[in-house]
Amino acid sequence: MILNLDSQFNPFPGQPAIEFDAFTFSGGEPHIKIKSDLSAAETVMITHRLTSFNEVGLLLIAIDAVRRCLVEEIHVFIPYFPAARQDRVMVAGESLSVKVYADLFNQLRLKGVIVYDPHSEVTPALLDNCVTVSNFTFIERILKDLPKDTLLVAPDGGALKKIYKLAAYLKDYNVIECGKTRDVKTGKLSGFKVYANDLEGRACLVVDDICDGGGTFMGLAGELKKAGAGDLYLAVSHGIFSKGTEKLSEHFRRLYTTDSFRTIVDDAVEQLPLGDLL
After folding, report:
1. pTM > 0.85
2. pLDDT digits (tens, 9 = 90+) for 96-123
3. In this structure, are 142 and 270 located in the same domain?
4. φ, ψ of residue 83 in degrees (nearest 5)
C-alpha cells in the first residue's frame, strides 16, 4: 500500500492508496491520523515532496503513525532530499546540513529510502538503506523531441561524473564540459567557461540535478553562444526556480523538469511526472 502525503504527487500510480487526515495545529505542529485499516499490510511506501521543515515533520510523524499500525516494513520516497547541496562545510561556522536530515531518517530504521537523482554521492552515503534513481529515463524522454545531433552539456565539474554515466547509457551523445568559479563566502558566480572551440550550431541540452535561482545556467548560456551553440535547452531533475523562469527563458528555448519538488504551471516549462518515468 502507498501513502501519498502530497495530494498532487503520485509517483507510483496504480497502487492502493492509504486514506488519512492531516492538519497543522495553531502552534505550527503537523498532525496526521491514518484512516485505512493497515492490519493486513506488511509493507507500506510513504511518499512526500519536502519543500519545508514542516513537510519533513509531517513525513516523520506519518512514519511513526504507520509503524504504530504494526506495519513491519516501511519505505519512503523522498525525490528531492533536503539540504543535499549542503554536503560540505565550506567555511567555519556552517552546518553539514545534509547529515542532520540523514540522521533524522536513520533513527527511524526504515526498510528503504528512495531518492531521485541526488545532488552528490554524499546523500546515499549518509542515508541507511538508500536506493537512488538516476535521471536517465527523464533525459532520454526529452531527447526524443530534440535534434539527433544534440550535445549534452555539463555545466560544471560537479556534474561531470553523472553526465558521463548518462552519455554511456544513451550511447550516441557527446558531452561538452564547462566550468565556473564560485566565491564560497558570498556565493557569487564568475569565470564561466566552455571547453570547446566550435559547437557548429548544434543544439545543446544543459543537464543538471537542480535549478534554484538559475544563475549558473544563465551565465553559461552566453558562453555557449560564443562557442557557436545553436538552440539551448535546460533539463533539471528538481525544478525549484526560486526566481521564476522569465530570465531563464530569454536564454533557453525550453525548460524541462520533473514534479519532484513541486507542481509547476508555466508555459516555459515542460514538467514530466515521475509517475511516468520510474
Report:
1. yes
2. 999 999 999 999 999 999 999 999 999 9
3. yes
4. 65, 20
